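Per reviewer request, we include the raw input and output of the structure prediction for the construct analysed in the revised manuscript.
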Amino acid sequence: MKISVITVCYNSEQTLERSLQSVAKQDWSSVEHIVIDGASTDGTKEILERYRSSLAYLVSESDNGIYDAMNKGLVRTTGDIICFLNADDQYASTNILSKVVSQMEFHQLDALMGDVGFFHKKDFTRMVRRYCSKDFSPTRLAFGWMPAHPALFLRKEVIQRVGLFKTDYRIAGDFEFIVRAFHGNALRYRHFPEVLVHMQTGGVSTAGWRAKIRLNQEVLRACQENGLKTNILKILSKYPAKLLELYR
């Protein structure tokens, strides 16, 4: 089985090489790494050129935001399993993708979800939080819960059925996409109880209270647009539970 890994980046010279290496070093041989760069102006392009031989597709051009860039990657995929790896993230070990294939084949899954470890941006050896996907179910979408997106692996058939990301979302486009994938669909999914991806703290969806307000507004909109009954109090109720992630 071929796995398509999509990485979108913009001015990511500080972290990108680590991300590219973590894909290139995977022990699963059938990997298609697609990189969409938003016309970076720092040293990102030079790093990408050094790794061009290990990339299945590379483009550097202006886009209309992160979800537009992700869509550019999706339409280029030819793999049986599709996933995203951010430019400031990396796989936790060199056998992550082979584990994913083994699990998805053995259990005949449409989706596999693992955990993400958040690491301090100045100390990538210290995990400060673990995002566990264990308790996710489609019923929890109404509370704003979703599996950890960088550790979510979907069959190509699911992507084809769901379609592309909505580009008028700024922060919660991945949540809206997951609502479309899981709400009302009998996907065969399973949680894999390991940290599959190391993520750096300080991303768009975790940066400040203004971002949190916009995130929750978009989560509410995503539910409403897809016929999922909820309200803002339900969505906000997830935050006390998220504090427990600091102690996992």
